[in-house]
Amino acid sequence: MSPALLPALLGLTLVLPGAQALTCHSGSAMAVREATELPLTWTVGEEDCREGWGCQDTVMLLENGPLVLLVITKGCTQEEDQEARVTQHWATPGLSIVSYTRVCRREDLCNDLSSTRSLSTPPLPTFPGTVRCPVCLSTEGCETAPEVTCPVGHTHCYNGILQLRGGGIDAKLRVQGCMSQAACNLLNETRGIGPLSVSEKCTTNGTVPLTCQSGRLVSVRNATELPLEWNAGKEDCGEGWGCQDTLMLLENGPQVLLVLTKGCTQEEDHEARITQHREGPGLSIVSYTRVCRHEDLCNDLPNTVPLWALPPTAGPGTVRCPLCLSTEGCESATEVTCPVGHTHCYNGILKLRGGGINAKLRVQGCMSQAACNLLNETQKIGPLSASEKCPTKGGQTLTCHSGSAMAVREATELPLTWTVGEEDCREGWGCQDTVMLLENGPQVFLVITKGCTQEKDHEARVTRHQEGPGLSIVSYTRVCRREDLCNDLFSTRRLWTPPPPTLPGTVHCPVCFSTEGCDSPTEVTCPVGHSHCYNGLLQLRGGGINTNLRVQGCTSQAACNLLNGTRKVGRLSVSESCETDAFRTCQKGIMLRFKENLAKEPVEWDAFTTVKCDLDEVCQETLLLIDVGPRSLIVGSKGCGKAETPDSQTVSIHSGPPGVLAASYTHFCSSNGCNNASSTSVLLNSLPGPAAPAAGDLQCPACVQMSRFCTSSITVRCPKGTTHCYKGYISLKGGGLSSPLSIQGCMAQPSNSLLNHTNRIGPFHTAEFPEDVNKDLQSRAAPKDLQRGGASKDPHSGAAPAPYLAQVVGLGLSLALWCAVTSLLTLLPCDS
């Protein structure tokens, strides 16, 4: 057995023997007896104690109708002296618990209680009630417990498990009996009796909570040390939970990684499974998993014997690879000649999480293939989640501290410290640290955000955005890639210094930090030179932070510029407003209509909800109309948006009759609920009056549909003045929408852009893909494609032209799904 494994699992502490002092009675016992045998007596052995130690006596007596449980533990102790103490933890004619504890040092063998006479008393006379309960005291089970009539007043049946540990006792006792209440509190909140730790669980379905072996270990060993052995601790499981055993061995030439986790689990039982995830020679992985419930401590795998076998011999090949198993790095990896048939060098990172394990392992070795698949698609081994990354040459994948938090604290509590979690980053990403500290007289507001980032590295920066006394703001930002968890700031010490002494001025201001409101702020006397009261709102967004902070305090100037022009602090976007009502409330909703004559007949446009906007947003309402003649579509959006001109209204006719009509209405406004147009007439009233054009000779398919392709087009005779057929699609994204819009129809204007190259309509980002534009791009690329032996690509086959592709990624929603979603949001039907 490897002696280094035991401290890793159990945290053992070695002690040296001391000089002999007292001799104490010593021993422990537990027994179930008939109540008629009371009082009970006992004898025990003796032991010599360490210098300064005393003698302890602990007896617990549990009476349960005709049965009693006696628990005794005696011996040496470091506890302070206490006189004999008898405690009645629970006292009823049904179940009752009484204990005796004492610690003494006056003489040898002073822990001399040897009878239950001082604990047991004759039972009080009782009358039978109407409730019958099973009665049981057992370390085995209560399947054949006799049933008794409970005393009057005992209206509930107790069914629980007592766990007793300490002083040489380690027992789980099943208890059933009569109780006067339904609570699971037989111990009456008791957690310790002398050296005994006591706990209680009550079963609901008759199952007995298990005790399982518990421990975890990650260790790199020499292969010559195998097989390895270990000892584990114990833990009590939840009701219905089982015991799990998980062992993984990764062999890599002369080294072996051992990953072990034992404990409680909710997983279903399964017999022991040994899985060879990857065969050697070279790198190999094998695992053992088991889940059991048949008895306590059934997850009893004690060593690596079931998994380990001497690796097969193989002749040397021609490829040499570095060998490494390390949680640190592989800068000084040893190079070896790989076995024959192993023609590739593996270089990857394994991440194992779960079951108390959180490890990142750098692996280099010999493989028979070039794939980054050491785990052979394995993602789960017992409670372990396993993942794998193979950095490209010069690339790296970091693990960073990750988390976000905000807190208002008293300034007297500074410096503040914190802890966070971890996250695995994408290849090439770095770790970022962002901390912002606002001081405001007696209060401070702390904002923290940590995690992965694509930003370039920069050394730690401490920036004082606003100097005190009075209101002050300081921030810390850093981006690093030099090692895992390098974003390691965990205290305000680098940001905070005690404020310099100041003299009181003549101005009094309210002081407040709140995400709710400042209805009852504290008023303070401002420092000399601070002659203005600040009253504003800070909005913080990004890095897991999304908050609006109301701030009041003392400043030296009247401007609304607490942030001193700052708009970005690390991952945080920050903005500021000193308006009384900083956040506008706007109507919110999406509308979609397919119907004939939408260019002539207005339809209702209602929003059934409202939304609060960000500081730099105003209300918006936008309509887009596409009319191809026999069929038309109108899309509407109400909500918040950003506008260069806060109050503006625009109607645009992007392409007009004869042929396809594409028109839009956009309205931005800066008062609450001002985006309140109730029908599409706000657009229709600005369109040119309809004419009755004579039919021409051109025929075109006509269609407007929410999809990439028209599936229900009809052929129409185009009006005079049209010169060609339009066929293409427009992607819409924003304003609550994300979908392609397919259009076919007659067209007169010489440009083949239905939207006249417009790429923004209100909140909608638009990208247009006319078919002949795609064909033109395709024809220009065809010779190069044909030289490679490739086929030309139709944009409707799923490949859009490169200039437009980035704008439409992820927009391929089906008509049925899109209609379902928009109908839900607007409470309006998708008309057929």
Give me some keywords for this one.
about 850 residues; CD59; 4 domains; six-stranded antiparallel beta sheet; 49 strands; about 50% strand; disordered C terminus
Produce the secondary structure layout.
Blueprint: H1 5-10, E1 20-34, E2 45-50, E3 54-64, E4 67-77, E5 82-90, E6 95-104, E7 128-134, E8 136-138, E9 147-151, E10 156-166, E11 169-179, E12 192-193, E13 196-202, E14 211-222, E15 233-236, E16 242-252, E17 255-265, E18 270-278, E19 283-292, E20 316-326, E21 334-339, E22 344-354, E23 357-367, E24 380-381, E25 384-389, E26 399-410, E27 421-424, E28 430-440, E29 443-453, E30 458-466, E31 471-480, E32 504-514, E33 522-527, E34 532-542, E35 545-555, E36 568-569, E37 572-577, E38 585-595, E39 609-612, E40 618-627, E41 632-641, E42 648-655, E43 661-669, H2 681-684, E44 695-705, E45 714-719, E46 724-734, E47 737-747, E48 760-761, E49 764-770, H3 771-787, H4 802-808, H5 815-826
Antiparallel strand pairs: 1-2, 1-4, 3-4, 3-6, 5-6, 7-9, 8-11, 10-11, 10-13, 12-13, 14-15, 14-17, 16-17, 16-19, 18-19, 20-21, 20-23, 22-23, 22-25, 24-25, 26-27, 26-29, 28-29, 28-31, 30-31, 32-33, 32-35, 34-35, 34-37, 36-37, 38-39, 38-41, 40-41, 40-43, 42-43, 44-45, 44-47, 46-47, 46-49, 48-49
